[in-house]
Amino acid sequence: MAQAVSRRQLLQLGAVVVVGWGAAKVFQRAAPIGRDVGTNLTAQRLLQDRLSPRTEVRGADLTMVVFTDYQCAACKVAAPAMAAAVADDGRVRLIYREWPIFGPRSERAARVALASAAQGVYPQVHRRLMAERRQLDDAVLQAVVEASGGDWARLLADLDRLAQPIDQLIARTSQDAFALSLPGTPAFVIGTILVVGGMDEDGFARAFAEARARPR
């Protein structure tokens, strides 16, 4: 017959769990973030990318390349943490690489986002798509574009007009992801560090600090 667990034993067990969780967090913070890609030619080229959408900030001294998919749950969780860390840091420029790997709706959303750059609203569209929880059909995409200050009719025209460069950009992103051996999204090239998977705000801040501390 199983014995009842006393209140004292429960408290002791709780203390062990808390200590274990704390130790795990300390170990996580002490462990290196990501892997070094300082000598990787693909990573070096990504940091110089002038064709993909980007956000510039005055005095930026660090570049982060972001591989995302708008139907990727981990990307959606990481997005607000990344945005908060970037805003708090104030010196990180972003380069966005659309890597639609979750099917036709992902590809359509990526194309719409890239086409929105012609109207200067890509950052707003990207942010809203990352926060979107509805199925990404054209009605939702139109609502996102218009809420971001874009014109849907013009965007549809830009999708046709820019079809070839958008195709090339998505294809090149897939090639670069393969060259970096990325298993999926999200992934981040932060200076000379490659991080695969999402991070919380503290994780991004640590990655920024580590990237700045490494030789460039």
From TrEMBL:
It comes from Polymorphobacter multimanifer. Keywords: Disulfide bond, Isomerase, Oxidoreductase, Redox-active center, Signal. Residues 35-213 form the Thioredoxin domain. InterPro entries: DSBA-like_thioredoxin_dom, Thioredoxin-like_sf, Thioredoxin_domain. Pfam families: DSBA. Gene3D superfamilies: Glutaredoxin. GO terms for molecular function: isomerase activity; oxidoreductase activity. PANTHER family: DISULFIDE BOND FORMATION PROTEIN D (PTHR13887:SF14), GLUTATHIONE S-TRANSFERASE KAPPA (PTHR13887). This is Protein-disulfide isomerase.
